[in-house]
Amino acid sequence: MPNEKGSRKIPVEAPKTNGDELRVIGVPRRRVDARAKVTGQTRFADDIFLPRMAHCKLLRSPHPHARIRKIDTSRAAAP
Amino acid sequence: MTTLPIESQKSAQIRFTLNGEETDVSFAPYKTLLEVLREDLGHTGTKHGCELGECGACAVLLDSKPVLSCLVLALECGGRQVLTVEGLGEYGSLHPLQDAFADLGAAQCGYCTPAILVTAKALLDLNPHPSRDQIREAISGNLCRCTGYLQIFEAVEAAMLKIADQRKSVTQMPG
């Protein structure tokens, strides 16, 4: 159940001032981008596909301390 | 070594149900379900994380069960049902899980959110009243580096109550 042990207190009622309910202060507000985030519509860098896009690949050294003499990029070269 | 142009690599073809819709897709046969969803079908809601089955960001429901789409070959999915975050809400309205995640701050950067949403849906479909520990276990394969998980557990619990309320009001409706 919400608000069980180990949970934050989620305010249920809006605080009042002079009998009027506050609409922003003390009231949980949805983030402006929340809807896009929960529907998968948010565009992350990896989600952008453009024509003629170049791709890169991170090649990590298998050696902790070594001098790079050459890197064989032939398999990565565009046909 | 010459490489075939990308279009002629699309030698595999399957028909499956994606988010309730019959879908035909052609793709290179070595591709994973994740790659086909994102690259060949343009459904980028499902995220590409580690590609090793460690982070859970690519989870989708395959025949109602959560799977890591980076470890499933698309060729295995012919004739099967796939549900992604894009298929969660109905008719432009959000699924109660999506509502709760948005309201309770369970989606921060949002990268893990689509996978956690579908994983939580699979849990609630199977067990409409999971305990905190059962939720924790169901989500344990999905890494989230923002929230610390508390908001996610709370949101799943809030959605669980809302779904139960909706069911109650449907069964009480006269006629």
Description:
The complex is a heterodimer of chains A (79) and B (175). Chain A is largely without helices or strands and 79 residues long. In chain A, 8% of the residues lie in helices and 5% in strands. Chain A contains 1 helix and 2 strands; from the N terminus they run E-E-H. A two-stranded antiparallel ribbon of chain A has the order 1-2. Chain A is elongated and about 75 Å long. Chain B has 175 residues and is α+β, with helices and mostly antiparallel strands. Chain B contains 5 helices and 5 strands. Chain B has helices spanning 33-40, 96-103, 113-126, 132-138, 150-172; strands spanning 12-18, 21-27, 59-62, 65-68, 81-83. In chain B, strands 2-1-5-3-4 form a 5-stranded mixed beta sheet, with helices on both faces. The A-B interface holds A 1-2, 4, 6-8, 10, 28, 30-31, 33-44, 46-47, 49, 74-75, 79 and B 1-5, 38-39, 42-48, 84-86, 88-89, 94, 97-99, 101-105, 107, 110-111, 113-114, 117, 132, 150, 153-154, 157-158, 161.
Helices and strands in order:
The complex is a heterodimer of chains A (79) and B (175).
Chain A lengths: L15 E2 L2 E2 L12 H6 L40
Chain B lengths: L11 E7 L2 E7 L5 H8 L18 E4 L2 E4 L12 E3 L12 H8 L9 H14 L5 H7 L11 H23 L3
Parallel strand pairs in B: 1-5
Antiparallel strand pairs in B: 1-2, 3-4, 3-5
Quick description:
Chain A is mostly loops.
